[in-house]
Design a protein that fits this description.
By secondary structure, this protein is α+β, with helices and mostly antiparallel strands. It has a domain of about 70 residues: SH3 type barrels, CATH 2.30.30. About 25% of the residues lie in helices and about 30% in strands. The protein has three helices and five strands; from the N terminus they run H-H-H-E-E-E-E-E. A five-stranded antiparallel beta sheet has the order 4-3-2-1-5. A hairpin with a 2-residue loop joins strand 1 and strand 2.
Length: about 120
């Protein structure tokens, strides 16, 4: 039986009772960081280096490219439009991601702008 002297709890306050609660702030992120598998940077053979160098010298701004690169102990892949090639500074920019030549281990043109 309800107590008539008690005030009825507001709906927002009742909902807060069932909200998720994290007793240890940052614990989930720390666990995810621990689960990360660290990968060594791939070493390219001489043929692979030559092919990569050829591709880096033939790509053009506006090409749709697929790039495999190494970043933060991970091997990652990205597909996007090449927005900049800077041979002097040694980097390419795919969409808004700046990638140093030294971090790229595979590059392929998916679609040429002149096709």
């Amino acid at each position: 039986m309800a107590d008539k002297n008690r005030l009825k709890m507001r709906r927002e306050d009742r909902a807060k009772q069932f909200a998720p609660f994290a007793a240890l702030k940052g614990f989930d992120e720390a666990l995810r960081a621990k689960e990360k598998i660290i990968v060594e940077k791939p070493r390219l053979s001489e043929e692979e280096r030559d092919e990569l160098d050829r591709n880096l010298h033939t790509i053009e701004r506006g090409n749709l490219v697929k790039v495999n690169y190494y970043e933060d102990d991970e091997c990652l892949e990205m597909t996007g439009v090449l927005s900049k090639v800077d041979m002097d500074a040694g980097y390419i920019k795919v969409v808004n991601k700046k990638l140093a030549f030294s971090d790229v281990y595979h590059l392929e043109v998916v679609k040429n702008i002149y096709d």
